[in-house]
Amino acid sequence: MTSIDLNDYYYFVHVVEKGGFTRASESLGIPKSRLSRHIAQLEERLDTILIQRTTRQSKITEPGEVFYQRARAAVDQVELAEAELRRKKNTLSGQVTVSCSVGVAQFALKKLIVRFVTDNPRITVLQQVTNQNVDLIAAGVDMSVRGHTDPLPDSTLIQRPLATVEWNLFASPDYPINEIASPADLTNHQTLSLGWQGHGDRWRLAHRSGTIENIQIAPRLKSEDMSTLKEAAGEGLGIVALPAYTCRDELASRTLVRVLPEWHAGQADLSLILPRRSGYTASVAAFREFLQAEFAGSVATP
Fold first, then answer.
1. Residues 292/110/239/195 CA torsion (nearest 10 deg)
2. What phi, psi does 4 have (nearest 5°)?
3. pLDDT digit string (tens) for 209-235?
4. Total structural domains in the chain?
5. Strand partners of residue 35
6. Which of these ranges, 69-73, 79-83, 94-98, 182-186, has the smallest mean pLDDT?
7. Are 152 and 111 contained in the same domain?
């Protein structure tokens, strides 16, 4: 029986994921000749052409596509095993780049990242904070945490669910919330809204019983920054709809209270997004597992 060289799998995966030998060679920092030798060795052992090569380009074959899925899974398992062993020995090292929105950075990831870096002193975390969608591969980002209400359409990305969060209505305890007995009453009150673009603002409110009400609002303040909206609501400037977990501290200190607590202003999913075609280092695998285990607790409804 011919022995299996895992390097063949590793290099084959990188050639496929980088779209060719040149980019894979640059990414791995090794000569193209070495990559070509390993791919040829793999094809000879399998008696199958996996990558069709010409002088100008290379293209994965249909058998190569099938084999890639298995090879990727095998490489993933080896990397996860390495990460687990290094974690137990506290020798994980490397770099992780994560992208997230401003709100997620301020209210969900802040303490988690501090914990992870504290527990893994040899790992460097690079955090990109932006409300714009990021091309993970082009930007060299290992993963992103993204909030969404609909399934993400990009099939080239891997989506791992982290948590489902509920949005509630909040206002200052000094605001006349006793005047609000039903969603319809909101039309007579000042509101604050997340997101500065768009017209025809509406809140879609859902009762615990399942009843749905769509309420037209005319926000006196619209912002992409949740901290600004919380500050404005705390000063009595109006009612705001925000993810419940972002107001945990304000609820505890009574600087904000819930409005219409039997209703919520929708739900959103938070997912971990990863490039489908990128190898995971031990440090990236460890951070991914950490988020999947700990993230839901950090955004639980207070």
1. -80
2. -95, 130
3. 999 999 999 899 999 899 999 999 999
4. 3
5. none
6. 79-83
7. yes
